[in-house]
Design brief:
This protein has helices spanning about 15-25, 45-50, 65-70, 110-115, 135-145; strands spanning about 5-10, 30-35, 60, 75-80, 85, 95-100, 120. The protein is α/β, with parallel strands linked by helices. It has a seven-stranded parallel beta sheet. Strand 1, helix 1 (about 15-25) and strand 2 (about 30-35) form a beta-alpha-beta unit.
Length: about 170
């Protein structure tokens, strides 16, 4: 069974984390929150963004990066606007941790410079500073799951008022 991990380092905006939690729940992806957080886990804004998905989450919190690294082993892929490799050019093995930094500062540069081969970025138009964190996480998650053949995910939907196989008149 394949395991994908999303790691948010010091997230500051509860709505972003709520949206990311919803993505994790919908894709059966583990969520790791590395503190200090810029909000409380019971924040109403956080819960509202992922309101009816919290029971589906596999979520772990950590006091800081040293606590996270002490309790987890990689491989780690650091998503950063400073990366030199495109995220879709990387092969993500089972157990991968996609690591994202805080909305206003990204990941610490001392972490990035020690792991240049593991730093990846999403291509963007040069004048734009960055994408929204929750959008970046969703793009990263779905690239990994695409490479893995979307394990355990439902790939076909159903109509609620019609049947795909019955023509309408």
């Amino acid at each position: 069974m394949s395991t994908l991990n999303i790691v948010l380092v010091e997230p500051q905006i509860p709505q972003n984390t709520g949206n990311i939690a919803r993505t994790c729940a919908a894709t059966n992806t583990r969520l790791h929150l590395v503190g200090p957080l810029g909000f409380s886990i019971d924040d109403k804004k956080l819960k509202r963004a992922g309101l009816d998905y919290w029971h589906l989450l596999d979520i772990t919190t950590y006091t800081g990066l040293s606590d996270f690294f002490a309790k987890n082993s990689g491989p780690y892929f650091y998503f950063t606007t400073k990366g030199r490799r495109v995220h879709s050019d990387v092969q993500y093995p089972d157990g991968s941790h996609l690591v994202f930094g805080r909305e206003d500062a990204g990941l610490p540069e001392d972490l990035l410079v020690k792991n240049p081969a593991s730093c990846v970025r999403l291509p963007m138009f040069a004048p734009a500073r960055s994408l929204n964190l929750s959008n970046t996480v969703a793009v990263g998650v779905y690239e990994v799951l695409r490479q893995w053949g979307y394990p355990r995910l439902q790939s076909a939907g159903r109509l609620t008022q019609y049947d795909w196989d019955q023509p309408t008149t």
